[in-house]
Amino acid sequence: MERLQKIIAESGICSRRKAEELILDGKVKVNGKIVTTLGTKVSNDDIILVNDKKIKVEKKEYYLLNKPRNYICSLEDDRKRKLVTELIDTKARIYPVGRLDYDTTGLIIMTNDGALANILMHPKNKVEKTYLAKIKPCLTMEELFTLKKGIAIDNVVCYPTRVKIKKHDANKDTDLVEITIHEGRNHIIKNLFKEIHHDVLKLTRTKYAFLSIDKLQSGEYRYLTKEEVKKLYSYQIK
């Protein structure tokens, strides 16, 4: 169940503010009855008429994708690069929740549910994201503690909730570091390591909230279950 004005706006015929005006002006019918109360809840099964024309209510879809390298998290690109939306077989107008860099791989949620996307991306809800970063050179213990204490990026401190060295290769002078953060600023992981003078050679996101890649191969995806969607909605702080 979603608010009527939101459903009308998402159909693409007008903005949400215009949808509210249409409702108040008595131009909207739900199942044959005029509705003038803002905030009225409707479902995908309801028949909605705006100015006596039926609108198309798009069914909400939710996917978990293992993003490959060299795809961008956008709906279009003037440089003609490959888009993550091209990997999902659907006619729905889905989009990525947040972004992963062009050369970053791993878990990303794709949906046409704007309300859920806003919940997951809003900083106050503190949704955890876990990454594996292959870095060079190896971390010193002092640098590891510096990461754990938090590092200022553009005058805003990022506080990782967990940092752990998963694999140490002294010969190649590289570490595989697992790092979990709440926020979603662009290039945040790369910038964290850059501040302590380390290059990120490879980066993949392995977890988003309670979801993980599991056995999904690069480019593969699966539907989220109703239970998973409900649990993601529970991240909203009232």
What would your notes on this structure say?
- The chain has 238 residues and is of the alpha+beta class.
- The chain has 3 domains: 2-54, Structural Genomics Hypothetical 15.5 Kd Protein In mrcA-pckA Intergenic Region, Chain A (Roll), CATH 3.10.290.10; 62-123 and 213-233, Pseudouridine synthase I, catalytic domain, N-terminal subdomain (Alpha-Beta Plaits, 2-Layer Sandwich); 128-208, Alpha-L RNA-binding motif (Alpha-Beta Plaits), CATH 3.30.70.1560.
- Helices cover 21% and strands 31% of the residues.
- It contains 6 helices and 17 strands.
- The chain has helices at residues 4-10, 16-24, 114-121, 141-149, 188-195, 226-233, and strands at residues 2-3, 28-30, 33-34, 41-42, 48-50, 53-54, 62-67, 95-96, 105-111, 129-136, 151-153, 156-158, 162-169, 174-181, 199-208, 211-212, 221-223.
- Strands 7, 8, 9, 10, 13, 14, 15, 16 and 17 form a 9-stranded mixed sheet that branches.
- Strand 5 and strand 6 (53-54) form a beta hairpin.
- Helix 1 crosses helix 2.
- The longest helix is centred in the N-terminal third of the chain and has 9 residues, at 16-24.
- The two termini are 18 Å apart.
- The mean pLDDT is 93.
CATH superfamily of the largest domain: Pseudouridine synthase I, catalytic domain, N-terminal subdomain
Q: Helix amount, in percent?
A: 10-25%
What is the oligomer described by this structure?
single chain
Number of strands: 17
Return the CATH architecture of the largest domain.
2-Layer Sandwich
